[in-house]
Design brief:
The protein has helices at residues 2-23, 108-127, 157-173, and strands at residues 44-49, 52-57, 61-70, 76-85, 90-98, 149-153, 177-180. It is α/β, with parallel strands linked by helices and 183 residues long. The protein has a domain at 64-183. The strands form 2 sheets. A 4-stranded mixed β-sheet has the order 3-4-5-6. Strands 2-1-7 form a 3-stranded mixed β-sheet, covered by helices on one side.
């Protein structure tokens, strides 16, 4: 008889324990695929530019950064702001500057030739009727058009730096702000 009581106790304990496993629902963990839900009264940063408008909720921004680099060949420097979000799209705001320094290395004449061509094209674009910087964003289909990147080309490195200061301030203070290019 003692044996049956202990078996009933084991079955009872197993039943209660197993029921507890199915009664709990796991809470979603933050991270990829589970961005935080917007709180009531969410705040936003907006860039209102001649080439379009970009708006992002502060709680979805993962990081912002500004950096400079020189394109291969050394003829063009890029000043760029990147906005990384918890979604699948990254925003880039950049300006291009022609670098005048010519290296005195083997192949320098080829570099000089390319720099001259870049200057000529740059002058041609500046003098054309449709020479707005935002009209000069170049994408290669499908490589850059499907790269989950929204790109805005600004006129100068100074504008890119102003945009970064505005964006960072707005994000850090969680303050609604609109950045507009001063014409």
């Amino acid at each position: 008889m003692h044996f049956f009581r202990s078996v009933h106790f084991v079955w009872f304990f197993a039943f209660v324990w197993a029921g507890g496993l199915f009664a709990q629902t796991p809470s979603p963990s933050p991270g990829v695929g589970n961005p935080p839900s917007p709180a009531e009264g969410s705040t936003y940063w907006t860039a209102d530019l001649p080439g379009g408008t970009y708006t992002v909720a502060h709680h979805l921004i993962a990081s912002v950064g500004i950096h400079q680099y020189t394109l291969e060949g050394g003829a063009t420097r890029v000043v760029e702001v990147s906005v990384d979000t918890l979604g699948s799209v990254q925003a880039r705001f950049y300006a291009l500057e022609v670098v005048n320094a010519v290296p005195s290395l083997p192949g320098a004449s080829a570099v000089e030739y390319l720099q001259d061509k870049i200057r000529e094209e740059s002058d041609r674009l500046r003098s054309s009727a449709t020479s707005e910087p935002w009209e000069k964003v170049l994408k290669t289909y499908p490589t850059t058009t499907h790269a989950h990147t929204i790109e805005y080309r600004l006129e100068s490195a100074e504008q890119v730096q102003e945009l970064y200061k505005n964006l960072r301030s707005s994000w850090m203070q969680r303050k609604n702000q609109i950045f507009r290019i001063k014409s």
